[in-house]
Sequence to fold (215 residues):
Amino acid sequence: MLTLIQFPWSPFCITIRHILTRHRIPFRLQNIAYHDRAPIITATKGQGHTVPCLLDGKRGICDVTDFGQEVARYVDRRYRLNLFPENLDGMQLILSRYIENDLESVGFKVNDTYVIPTRSLIERTMLIRHKERKFGRGCLREWTSHRKSLCDQFVELLKPIDNMLAASPFLLIDRPLFVDYSLYGVLGNYLFNGKTKLPNLNHLRRWHQRIGTTK
Fold:
């Protein structure tokens, strides 16, 4: 059986978790603290340190490139899910970059303002240290004070996606591809804290209900 090593709120972990769940692929979850990468390093024999990390027998797989999709592509090949049809590679790459860069870079800031304060002292300290090294000292306080404007920005970034979904039940064709799961993961991160809500965009809401069901 597969084991998914994860941070529960990570958008990229939510993506893989939902692919496995929706396709009824059995797996175990192993939650780790943000600062404890030893299980991943061990599983990948030192080749990786990021989540999601998938353990399949003695083999550990994690994303190792920018906009990495190695874990998703491994699951896709292993279970023949056809989430990456060759004729749509270009479209998926462009759209996934928008979802995992532009959209995610706003959504995670909102969720962090709720989630990081709830973590244990050590994990909270390590999370803040990491964020401040990347985004500057006091970034979490800044995001908290600008939470409403970040939520408004998140909705604006979702409007082009809502327009796409007006013409199709899923983003590119009439069934979910990787980009649909990627979007589900970014939204799942935004909603993880339980205090934010799915934006009032009708086509997006219908899509979210469709993809949220088990296949």
Q: What stands out?
A: The first strand starts at residue 2 and ends at 6. Residues 89-115 form the longest helix (27 residues). The chain has two domains: 2-79, 86-212.
